[in-house]
TrEMBL record:
<dbReference type="InterPro" id="IPR016181">
    <property type="entry name" value="Acyl_CoA_acyltransferase"/>
</dbReference>
<keyword id="KW-0808">Transferase</keyword>
<protein>
    <submittedName>
        <fullName>GNAT family N-acetyltransferase</fullName>
    </submittedName>
</protein>
<keyword id="KW-0012">Acyltransferase</keyword>
<dbReference type="InterPro" id="IPR000182">
    <property type="entry name" value="GNAT_dom"/>
</dbReference>
<dbReference type="Pfam" id="PF00583">
    <property type="entry name" value="Acetyltransf_1"/>
</dbReference>
<dbReference type="GO" id="GO:0008080">
    <property type="term" value="F:N-acetyltransferase activity"/>
</dbReference>
<feature type="domain" description="N-acetyltransferase">
    <location>
        <begin position="3"/>
        <end position="148"/>
    </location>
</feature>
<dbReference type="InterPro" id="IPR051016">
    <property type="entry name" value="Diverse_Substrate_AcTransf"/>
</dbReference>
Amino acid sequence: MSLVLRNAEPDDLNGLTELMYEYIVGFYQKPRPATGKIHNLIQTLLEKQSGIQFVALQDGKLVGFATLYFTFSTMKADKFTVMNDLFVLEQYRDTEVESKLFLECQRYTQDHGYVHMSWIAATDNKRAQRFFDKMGGIQGDWVNYSII
């Protein structure tokens, strides 16, 4: 089987859109965003100014993606990446596809001079927490909040 990891490209728009819906609606059971909004987000990430998206293809089929956003840390007075998304279809979880997507994000972060990469996992997503622990992740001291 042939695994390819690469930056998302314009030709990935439809397949990536469907994969993102699987992630948003199927996995997290959140409302389905309008297709135009998903396409705008993908287009923004294709420009590689605010972030970047990577895709994983197994035997030519899109099976996963990861998204990095670029931001800054006042405390470190430096730039860092936020891995906002790491998603692979269920049959590819706990496989090299998932690990290599994570490592691609880490490599990009290091190669482009970012001070570190951060991410969050849902408190009930124990499988993801075990994966991140295995990959060398360290749980931070901060509590995440949001306003909806």
